[in-house]
């Protein structure tokens, strides 16, 4: 029983330690950012002059110094240094933020007083995650493109459609392919580190345009093509719903306009289908 408790403690310690380190980092960043603002204010109030003897105590009042005492760090953990080899540059530090295994134990915020630019001493991003990220992206493109090629050869080429229908099928399948890729990449486009896969997020609207255009241009000479035509008509109505939702002036007429657009496009497809059935011509 004691051994089981020890194992559970080990497994739980890792996420707890990571959470604690993130909290320590957040507190240190917030305080260093506030000290940076006070340093720039003091620099401006001094007429663009600075004194390398300034310390953290020269930036804050006694009450403000007490506010540096947080959950993880005390006022003595913060310091202000002036590198001798870099004029007008100050370095604000918080000691003991990290364990020091994979990054500096001391968090530093380097401030250029003349330009106001500041940057933390964050470690460079390791190369391996970038390689794995771009590798996953290339693999995704290759596999989905191979699936698209197989579908095109099995469904389109074997049915021997007209040239116009072949182009329509190609646009339809390419649109579905881009929709799948864009849908997969969309969540990653909003992450702070912006994974490489996220750069494919714009494939989503482009894929929808190709899918809709290909389905609408496809001559509805049979039930399968008519179904594709009708489905794309309904989806353009749903897309218009989202578009009108952003426009408050269209809110009252949104349901009517969306349904009307879907029915109009769908009815146009039915008329083309009936004409093809009556004349026997592949539109």
What is this structure, in a nutshell?
The protein has 283 residues and is of the alpha+beta class. It has helices spanning 2-45, 56-59, 62-66, 127-159, 163-185, 203-217, 223-245, 254-279, and strands at 78-81, 89-94, 107-112, 118-120.
Helix-strand pattern, N to C? HHHEEEEHHHHH
Helical fraction: 55-70%
Please tally the helical runs, counting DSSP H or I stretches of 4 or more residues. Answer: 8
Mean pLDDT equals 76
Low-confidence stretches: 1-18
* Sheet with the most strands, sense and barrel status: 4 strands, antiparallel
Q: Which strand order do you get reading across the main beta sheet?
A: 1-2-3-4
**Rg value:** 31 Å
What proportion of the residues form beta strands (DSSP E)?
Answer: 5-15%
- Count of β-strands: 4
Shape: elongated
Summing up helix and strand content along with how strands pair, one would put the structural category as alpha+beta
Report the span from N to C terminus.
76 Å
Describe this structure in words.
- This protein is of the alpha+beta class.
- The chain is built from 8 helices and 4 strands, in the order αααββββααααα.
- Strands 1-2-3-4 form a 4-stranded antiparallel beta sheet, covered by helices on one side.
- The longest helix has 44 residues, at 2-45.
- The relative contact order is 0.06.
- Residues 1-18 have low confidence and may be disordered.
């Amino acid at each position: 029983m004691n051994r089981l408790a020890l194992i559970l403690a080990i497994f739980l310690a890792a996420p707890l330690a990571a959470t604690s380190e993130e909290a320590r980092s957040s507190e240190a960043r917030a305080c260093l950012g506030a000290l940076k603002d006070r340093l720039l204010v003091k620099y401006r109030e001094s007429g663009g002059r600075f004194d390398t003897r300034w310390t953290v105590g020269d930036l804050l009042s006694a009450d403000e110094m007490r506010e540096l005492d947080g959950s993880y760090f005390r006022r003595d953990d913060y310091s202000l240094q002036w590198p001798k080899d870099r004029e007008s540059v100050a370095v604000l530090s918080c000691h003991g933020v990290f364990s020091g295994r994979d990054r500096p134990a001391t968090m530093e915020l380097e401030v250029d007083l003349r330009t106001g630019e500041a940057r933390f001493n964050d470690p460079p991003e390791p190369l391996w995650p970038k390689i794995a990220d771009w590798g996953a992206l290339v693999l995704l493109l290759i596999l989905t493109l191979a699936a698209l090629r197989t579908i095109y050869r099995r469904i389109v080429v074997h049915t021997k459609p007209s040239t116009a229908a072949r182009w329509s099928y190609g646009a339809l399948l390419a649109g579905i392919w881009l929709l799948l890729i864009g849908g997969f990449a969309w969540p990653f486009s909003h992450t702070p580190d912006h994974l490489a896969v996220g750069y494919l997020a714009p494939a989503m609207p482009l894929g929808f345009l190709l899918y809709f255009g290909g389905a609408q241009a496809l001559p509805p000479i049979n039930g399968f093509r008519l179904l594709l035509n009708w489905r794309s008509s309904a989806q353009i109505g749903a897309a218009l719903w989202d578009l009108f939702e952003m426009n408050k002036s269209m809110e009252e007429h949104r349901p009517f306009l969306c349904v009307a657009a879907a029915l109009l496009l769908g009815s146009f497809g039915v008329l083309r289908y009936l004409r093809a059935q009556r004349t026997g011509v592949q539109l």
